[in-house]
Design a protein that fits this description.
CATH superfamily of the largest domain: P-loop containing nucleotide triphosphate hydrolases
CATH topology of the largest domain: Rossmann fold
Radius of gyration: 24 Å
Structural class: alpha/beta
Largest sheet: 6 strands, mixed
Bound molecules: adenosine-5'-diphosphate, magnesium ion
Order of helices and strands: EEEHEEEHHHEHEHEEHEHEEHEHH
CATH architecture of the largest domain: 3-Layer(aba) Sandwich
Distance between the termini: 35 Å
Amino acid sequence: MPVIQTDNLTKHYGSIEALREVSLSVQRGEIFGLLGQNGAGKTTLIKILLGITKLTDGSARLLDRPVGTSAIRSRVGYLPEDHRFPEYHTGASLLDFYGALLDVPRSVRRKRIPETLEMVGLKGRMNYKIGTYSKGMKQRVGLAQAMFHDPDVIFLDEPTDGVDPVGRREIRAIMQHLKSEGKTIFLNSHLLGEVELICDRVAILQRGEVIREGTVAELTLQHNQYLVGIAPEGRFPREDVQKIGFSVAPQGDLWEIGLREGQSIDPVVDLLRSRGLGIRHLIEKRQTLEDLFVETVEAAEPGVDRPAHRARRPLS
Ligand SMILES: Nc1ncnc2c1ncn2[C@@H]1O[C@H](COP(=O)(O)OP(=O)(O)O)[C@@H](O)[C@H]1O
Ligand SMILES: [Mg+2]
């Protein structure tokens, strides 16, 4: 049974169609990333799954119950986007407060507060007021709040937004740790590089519609393109490789070999070896998620004429 399942989920806010026929499923133990530009509908989807806002059409299930079932509230953790916890709380008193709201017994709270804050690297600051925390520390205390009651599934809405690279790396490590404990993580992000490093599967949301979905490996693989490198003392026989039917283009110190459908890279390897050239590098070429995203979004908006310099800009 999937932990999260939506079927043709549609959401209208008045005349705004925030989600259109979204069908997704997330399995137990996965880190699933929902990607999209601001306004794509990511937060709306999380709010529907959590029962905060109602769907217009289609269906959504969480932990095998229709969304909005309050009985599963204690099995779900949530780090909202742009959250602001009361600054008079300390890290420790915040967890105590939220834990009590979810009926975590006092003795369990006392034990888990230092443990959880240690996991997010805030144990040393647990008795300082949140008002004194940096942005990265606030995100980490938010993560601690989302995982404190030991939920099965954790929703993180833009967890690394506004966090510096070191802080981001720490947040990724916490997510990996949660995954290793069998938790399911649903992550919203417009930071594609991040997502590539952490997610098992992703869906790209564009104006409320899922336009691509799959594992990061599947989505970033460029079929029929290899990168080949030979030992530095050799000269790459470019013309000869072209003669046996492959396209060749330099790519830094490497050579990009293009195959036709059904063609194998093996004849290129045989040719290089027959010339006594040492092969030092041979991989299928991958694009980044950002390349894929820009490509897919442009294909989805064929009428939009983007200047080349804009199309390559990182998303924000
Ligand atoms: N409460 C609301 N009332 C009206 N429109 C909303 C509301 N919440 C979101 N929207 C609209 O729905 C669309 C999706 O928003 P959102 O889910 O916040 O996107 P994202 O999280 O991907 O940035 C946007 O056009 C946004 O303006
Ligand atoms: Mg959002």
